[in-house]
Design brief:
Layout (H helix, E strand, L loop, with lengths): L1 E12 L2 E12 L3 E5 L6 H9 L6 E6 L2 E2 L10 E4 L11 H11 L4 H14 L15 H13 L5 E5 L7 H18 L2 E5 L3 H7 L2 E6 L2 E6 L1 H6 L4 H7 L4
Parallel strand pairs: 3-8, 3-9, 6-7, 7-8
Antiparallel strand pairs: 1-2, 1-4, 4-5, 9-10
Helix pairs in contact: 2-3, 2-4
The structure holds adenosine-5'-diphosphate and magnesium ion (MG).
Family: Belongs to the ABC transporter superfamily.
Main location: membrane
Keywords: ATP-binding, Cell inner membrane, Cell membrane, Membrane, Nucleotide-binding, Transport
């Protein structure tokens, strides 16, 4: 069964239709990457799945249940924002536990879940630091840690590495791939970096002006792009 289904999903801002009749099935445990030019609707689609934007029409199912109107906190989803979205006045430990504290989880359980996530991400020595005392890569790991502590079934990443330098981006890409294997979670990852898409994805979804242009494995899109647009994006010589 699919972990996540979009059926004829559309989104309009006023009279501007930015997501157009999107049909998509995402298998449990799959690493799916959304690519496409700036403004094509990648972030909007992710935010609709997370519940941060209303769905104008169509259906969203997660784990077999319709979730169109479900509160974001009850969707079993965690969204990883860019590292600058950390709370600067809170320690790493407080940043990672914040959502759980907000949800009324008992302190002992928060401590346990934060420690587990810190161990996975090798953040234990940094738990009492503030974000300003961390490197870019460490801050990004904390941003991921904040998602992990909630034990989501689905992780959403919106260009999480775009403001890191090239070397760190490669390192974090490998970390994210390892994390996906280790947690066995379903991941949807937005990027406009072809190399990130090709190396991380089980499946790539190419978006263009609010529609899905083509879906396939990196190899399928590379060797058999449906058209010039997909070929241009995936970088095959066709
Ligand atoms: P991407 O992430 O692929 O760059 P977005 O999903 O951010 O694209 O945006 C898709 C389209 O929707 C763009 O034309 C953008 O201007 C428009 N858009 C996004 N958010 C809003 C909003 N809150 N109000 C009006 N238009 C929006
Ligand atoms: Mg975006």
């Amino acid at each position: 069964m699919s972990e996540l289904s979009l059926r004829q999903v559309s989104k309009s801002f006023g009279t501007l239709k930015v997501i157009k009749d999107v049909d998509l099935e995402i298998e449990q445990g799959a690493f799916t990457v959304f690519v496409g030019p700036s403004g094509c609707g990648k972030s909007t689609l992710l935010r609709m799945i997370a519940g941060l934007e209303d769905i104008t029409s169509g259906d969203l199912e997660i784990g077999g249940a319709r979730m169109n109107d479900t509160d974001p906190s009850k969707r079993g989803i965690a969204m990883v924002f860019q590292s600058y979205a950390l709370y600067p006045h809170m320690s790493v430990r407080q940043n990672m536990g914040f959502a759980l504290r907000f949800a009324g989880v008992p302190k002992a359980q928060i401590d346990r879940q934060v420690m587990d996530a810190a161990r996975i991400l090798e953040l234990e020595p940094l738990l009492e630091r503030k974000p300003g005392q961390l490197s870019g890569g460490q801050r990004q790991r904390v941003a991921i840690g904040r998602a992990i502590v909630r034990h989501p079934k689905v992780f959403l990443f919106d260009e999480p590495l775009s403001n890191l330098d090239a070397e760190l981006r490669v390192h974090m890409r490998i970390e994210i791939a390892k994390l996906h294997k280790r947690l066995g979670a379903t991941v949807i990852y937005v990027t406009h970096d072809q190399v990130e898409a090709m190396t991380l994805a089980d499946k790539i979804v190419v978006l263009r002006a609010g529609r899905i242009e083509q879906t396939g494995t990196p190899l399928e899109l590379y060797t058999d792009p449906d058209n010039q647009f997909v070929a241009g994006f995936i970088g095959s010589p066709k």
